[in-house]
Amino acid sequence: MSTPTKNARSEARRREREEQQKAAAKKQRLIYAGVGAVVVLVAILIAVLSVEETSDRELVTVETLAGDPQIEGDALPPLPEGDTDPALGQVAPVVTGADFDGTPVTLGDGAQMISFLASWCPACDAELPEIVSWLEAGGPPEGVEFVAVSTQLAAERTNWPPTDWFAGAGYAGPVIVDSAASDIFTAYGAVATPTWVVLNDAGEVVFRSSGMLDPAAFDQVANLAATG
Fold first, then answer.
1. What distance in Å separates the CA atoms of residue 194 and residue 218, rounded to the nearest whole number?
2. Residue 41: CB atoms within 10 Å
3. pLDDT digits (tens, 9 = 90+) for 145-186
4. Between vectors from CA 181 to CA 74 and to CA 127, what angle results, nearest 5°?
């Protein structure tokens, strides 16, 4: 049996290296192809979900979501900035409307703590979770109802539709949906969101405020509805 020459052994090693390099290159191509396929699939999935989300947003318009509240009584004067509120002691208009599911909701018929919220409003977006935490911790005293007003409806702005916004914050309390023209907002003299209006058992205004409330003041303001 002949012994392989030095040149033959070198040639064998060269061919072995070439085969290893070819195998490594093939494996790398397969990895790249797999990664590329995953990237394409993810991109397609994102595009499909984006289209579905856009379609869902487009299906919910202001016209389809807005309420048709009926308002009885005199409107409250616009909330002044920094001056004595002329609405204090005035009987608030009675509003009969509904929530997002059509369940009847009434404002102005008894002691209530009312918060006017717009889903696109950054201050409202910050305050709603605080309201939810307060309600979960006990909320207003017995006999006082907390009601949110979904107002200033704007499909082209953020956090649309407000149904998802309220649900995302974990809010499960009563909501009355304002009209497309924000008639409840105007009737209660609100000039910005968030706006707070507190009524006593006689439906009289005992507190109004524009802007966020310190959560530490929630109990104090709610007690005005029970004792005011």
1. 14
2. 10
3. 999 999 999 999 999 999 999 999 999 999 999 999 999 999
4. 90
